[in-house]
Amino acid sequence: MKRRFRSPEETKKELVAEVLSGYRTEVVARQYGLSPRTLRNWVRQYQDEVDDLMAKKRDEAEKLKQDAGKLQDLQVKYNEAVKLLGEKELEINILRELVKKKHPDWK
Length: 107
Prior knowledge:
By secondary structure, the chain is mainly alpha-helical. It has a domain at 9-76: Arc Repressor Mutant, subunit A (Orthogonal Bundle), CATH 1.10.10. Helices cover 81% and strands 0% of the residues. The chain has helices spanning 9-20, 25-32, 36-102. Helix 1 packs across helix 3 (36-102) and helix 2 (25-32) crosses helix 3 (36-102).
């Protein structure tokens, strides 16, 4: 008696994505206890949908990389601004001390 693998479409699409990402059909089928023929049929059936999903994921990953680069640039600029602000605060305090020494009545 043949054993039928019943699973939701999402699971099927995940297995198809594994095959499309470079794994051999036979290896993936053996790993999940399927017939390679069944998995090949799923690949034919869901290939277009999974290709679209994989393309979207690649685009999202690329966008995340770009955003990470922008964030790193902003972090460097922020650190430089904080350093400059600290130097200016120090300079202002030194000048206030000098003014207080020359004019003790000044606030």
